[in-house]
Specification:
Largest sheet: 4 strands, mixed
Shape: globular
Helix content: 40-55%
Strand order of the largest sheet: 1-2-4-3
Bound molecules: zinc ion
Number of helices: 12
Number of strands: 4
Distance between the termini: 26 Å
Amino acid sequence: MKISCDRLPRIYVTLMSWVLLTPVLISCTEINIKSSPTDSGISATVTPIVKARSGNAKVTTAAINSRTPTQQTAQTDELEDTGDILIFHNPVKDETYQEVHEIIQDSQIFEEIAQTLNELLILPNDIPTYFMECGEENAYYDPSTVEITMCYELIERYKEIFTEEVETDEEYIAEVVNAGLFTFFHELGHALVDQLALPITGREEDVVDEFAAIILLQAGEEGENAVLSGVWQFAVDAEEEAELEELTYWGEHSLDIQRYYNMACLVYGSNPEKYQFLVENEDLPAERAEGCEYEYAQKSQSWEVLLSPYYKE
Ligand SMILES: [Zn+2]
């Protein structure tokens, strides 16, 4: 059965329909993740339990809308669209980041995504997103200013890794854009949780990883490639984390290796037939894979329920 969500799949599809990204083989010494050449529609089973839950779900924001005194937070009973996602590309000083800056700016992909989302979502405040040089490899959402910062340093780091094996200019550009896409949706997830006062339980970092994966997985082949890039980023970071013996069990993020498996599970769960190779290559243990189709359907349905009060009619 296909997910019978109302508008969300349409958001996902329009979101990425313009993209020129092409499937790129991604490989690693320890974990091999390959984009499958086959293209098939997204299908996921929504169990009756999940459907029943979604029928009863209602977003209530009363308990949590006092935390940003200077900023308006959405309330479902008086929805007014007074904000947009805005994209800015700050000039760079260090020439190292000039190329990434230009590719991201010229691609206009983030403007396209913002426009699509602005046409579909009610937002209480503008969410300016700055692509800029930060002096560190980072990306973050600041609830006090309602701003997203995407650092060129972070995109450059992933770009260097992912563009090693590409052959064409198009593949190169696709990899640079992909290096920033998953992170952008992760930060946008934080912004939506804050601005729409979405009632989440569980760790916000895990929740917004899932948001990023789900929104991209439903955006067609190009979105799937961006998720695979994100999965691979976690694999790279996990390797580094292990080497440095910097396992922050106390951190607000799950360990990179856990984030990797969580995302790999959603990728597999979105289309087990297409991503069977993840299990065959032991990139995703069969024991975890068993529940991934359900996990994907449940989480994508949950996001549909969370966001549907904020769709423009
Ligand atoms: Zn985060």
